[in-house]
Design a protein that fits this description.
alpha/beta, Elongation Factor Tu (Ef-tu), domain 3, Rossmann fold, 2 domains, 6-stranded antiparallel beta sheet, 6 helices, 13 strands, 30% strand
């Protein structure tokens, strides 16, 4: 769905109550932002996103700049408070392909520079296909990279805090350039690490072999290294698959699935079956 197709006609005014950097200063800045929601109805569930409207004017006379961010909180709200949600924001910069000049991303820099007490216009929530299965005996396979960890944080919080446990397998495969950039799983913020003791939950990490050259993390190799369990889950009719984050995560996932399935045709057939059954979803950018 193109950003221009989202309804942004009824924005809400939220208040930033906390902004925590969750990566060390030696690597790319990523922040965990907590937003106080406006009074009234703003119901959401895990896997949904909010829109953020950045005041202008911007290029071409646009009064607002619009970007989507996955909600990183469970439906119980951030810290169990239903009137607050969190989002995960990476400070981004872009290179002009013609001039070679470096420009700050409007939305990410606006949000990373915001301070507690600042007001933020939000819209939504959007999306309904990326949701936790109702049956707690279902298996959940989550694969992502970068800030794509946000909806998975929401999933895990809901499963183990909101619902009090899960009977099926919950597996997270996540890639980052370095261990310090394992969001919600590093020395600064260990929100997901709190659930490593849960019997049904396991997390697997892939890092870049050459981060100084900006090589992608070897997410495909990590999946193949665990192919017996992964492929067993894929073949189980009770397994739900979720992909989130950069488009490269999908490429790595597909590469690994082709190896496990034996051919691209066999994997595409399996994926089509899962999509038809409502057991495969992705949120990529």
């Amino acid at each position: 769905m193109n950003l221009s197709e989202y309804d942004i006609s009824n924005p809400y005014e939220a208040t930033l109550v906390a902004s925590e950097r969750i990566t060390p200063k030696t690597v790319t800045e990523v922040r965990h932002l907590v937003l106080q929601l406006p009074e009234g109805h703003f119901d959401f569930v895990e896997g949904q996103s909010i829109g953020v409207l950045i005041p202008g004017p911007h290029e071409f006379g646009n009064p607002r700049h619009f970007r989507l961010y996955s909600i990183a909180s469970s439906r119980q709200g951030e810290n169990g408070k239903g009137d607050a949600i969190s989002i995960c924001v990476r400070r981004c910069f872009y290179l002009d392909e013609v001039s070679g000049e470096r420009y700050p991303g409007k939305a990410s820099n606006f949000l990373c520079d915001a301070r507690p007490g600042d007001r933020v216009l939000i819209t939504g929530p959007y999306g309904s296909h990326f949701s936790v299965p109702p049956d707690d005996s279902a298996n959940i396979l989550m694969v992502g990279a970068g800030t794509g960890i946000a909806p998975f944080r929401a999933f895990v919080l809901h499963i183990y805090q909101g619902r009090g446990g899960w009977k099926g397998k919950v597996r997270l495969f996540y890639g980052a350039r370095t261990g310090m950039e394992m969001l919600y799983r590093n020395e600064i913020n260990r929100d997901l690490a709190l659930y490593y003791s849960e019997e049904s939950f396991q997390a697997f990490e892939a890092v870049s072999p050459r981060p100084y050259l900006d090589e992608e993390p070897t997410l495909d190799r990590l999946l193949v290294a665990n192919q017996f369990e992964v492929w067993e889950m894929i073949q189980d009719p009770k397994t739900h698959v979720y992909l989130a984050g950069l488009a490269q995560a999908e490429e790595k996932f597909e590469k690994a699935m082709i190896v496990m399935a034996g051919s691209k045709e066999a994997w595409l057939k399996r994926r089509a079956e899962m999509i038809e059954q409502g057991r495969y979803a992705e949120v990529l950018y």
